């Protein structure tokens, strides 16, 4: 059997430099998405192929078929690009390969704690919030559901983490939960289909707080949980978090707020803006790989009750013991082994500062407004909802020769921009979300040109 010839660091750095240059130079011209991509079938070889074979196959067969989601015209979901400082920091994460489960052997845990403190400061939240960095908003929402479940159990004399939830009586209320939140409720054993639907305010996805008050009064469960939204995924609507928080306190309900990207609105209008009241939540989800523009994967779970989170996640084992006084991150999250994903966040906050991050959000919201204004003035398209933040929601008008779904398919097939489908008030919609630091006004103008071309 052949021995594997390992590349030197010089060879790897040289190859990485060429790959980075090639990719960055291609971002303005390569297809934004590759819906027809095909991976050549290969059998696993008995003999080592080596680094150069991998490099050649990746560069010629895989890289050309990857999306340009890191570029300025990928507007599906809410996908931020990896900013240069965060990209460099992420390379360092891989190089140093720290396991941030328990502290005591390196400074990595302290970096994560400081990054969380900085995020709390960035969003003007009370200093009592603590938390953990997760693989994304879905994992953060799972922690939210699990911590809420633990709280509901404590009100009934049940330690759910240790005894299970077979005797738990808990009711969950929400108006427009994100799909990841529904998934989280299922993973936490609370049920994807058992949460109680609260009506929305007219023509919005925001919660009707009067109906919430009525449902909470009528609820006989000793454990109550309310899932609120700081920017719903389609309409970017914000629940009235001040009123929701007051109702939760009155009925002793746990309040979890999904603010994956909506919490960044706080940088535009401050603590008295549309996120007012989020500081009263028991727990919050946010996503750094969205508007903070750090690489995948990086979500954050914050809570005012770290002791409840620790009771949910902690497990002892002799080989895990050390003398660290702070709560270890493995006792605050799902994973025991954890990547040093805090470093790109820490580096971004340090390098760009609050004003730099705010300026990027302002650029994206201005770009969204520019596209929305063009659509509103067009006879071929219909703006389904005023653009209040970074999401443009529109459809083909009656005079357009394409229906909305086929229009989106043709738009993405052309490869100049990428958008995703949505549904608004029962109508098929196209959803375009701006959150990438690379996006320029020229990209918006290119999208307008594409839309105009398709309409003709």
TrEMBL record:
Q: Which domain of life is it from?
A: Bacteria
Q: Name one GO biological process term.
A: carboxylic acid metabolic process
One GO term in the molecular function aspect is: transaminase activity
**Cofactor(s) required, per the database record:** pyridoxal 5'-phosphate
List keywords of the entry alphabetically: Aminotransferase, Decarboxylase, Lyase, Pyridoxal phosphate, Transferase
Recorded hits in InterPro entries, A to Z, give: Aromatic_deC, PyrdxlP-dep_de-COase, PyrdxlP-dep_Trfase, PyrdxlP-dep_Trfase_major, PyrdxlP-dep_Trfase_small, Pyridoxal-P_BS
Mark the residues carrying the PTM N6-(pyridoxal phosphate)lysine.
290
Which PANTHER family does UniProt cross-reference here? GROUP II PYRIDOXAL-5-PHOSPHATE DECARBOXYLASE, MIP05841P
What family is reported?
Belongs to the group II decarboxylase family.
Descriptive protein name: Aspartate aminotransferase family protein
Source organism of this protein record: Pseudoalteromonas rubra
